[in-house]
Amino acid sequence: MLDFRKSLEESRQVLSHGFANEAEFKAEVDRHLRAFAKGELPPADAPRDKVLLPLAVLAEVQKETAEKEQALVRAEREHQLAEAVFGVSASGLSMTVQRAGERLRNDDTLLAVAN
């Protein structure tokens, strides 16, 4: 949690600070309410430039991204291997299999009609 707070403070996107007493807190709330009433604060739904994530979540996202990139590399390698072995592109192979399936269905239909 401390790392997350530190990243927020360093980004200067969200400023947080403590209050020495109740009077300081009231003054800060009053200042913000006046700014809101004057329209000096950005709208709550205004787009933000950055999304700040806790470091643990960021590490998990980076790990998942790396795993997906490795899976993509493996899939591309397997695709190239299939093209080399079968001598056709994957889409061509798919069309060949599809045509073979259609022929089998047609043959089954002819056999059923003949019987």
What's the short story on this structure?
The chain is mainly α. The chain is 72% helix and 0% strand.
List the helices and strands and how they pair.
Elements: H1 2-11, H2 22-37, H3 55-86, H4 90-114
Written overview of the protein:
This protein is an all-alpha fold. It has two domains: 52 residues, no CATH class; 63 residues. It starts with a helix and ends with a helix.
Question: Which keywords apply here?
Answer:
115 residues; mainly alpha; 2 domains; elongated
SSE string, helices as H and strands as E: HHHH
Number of helices: 4
Strand content: under 5%
Number of E-state strands: 0
How would you classify the helix and strand content by structural class? mainly alpha
Overall structural domain count: 2
- CA-based gyration radius: 31 Å
| End-to-end CA span | 76 Å
Helix residue percentage: over 70%
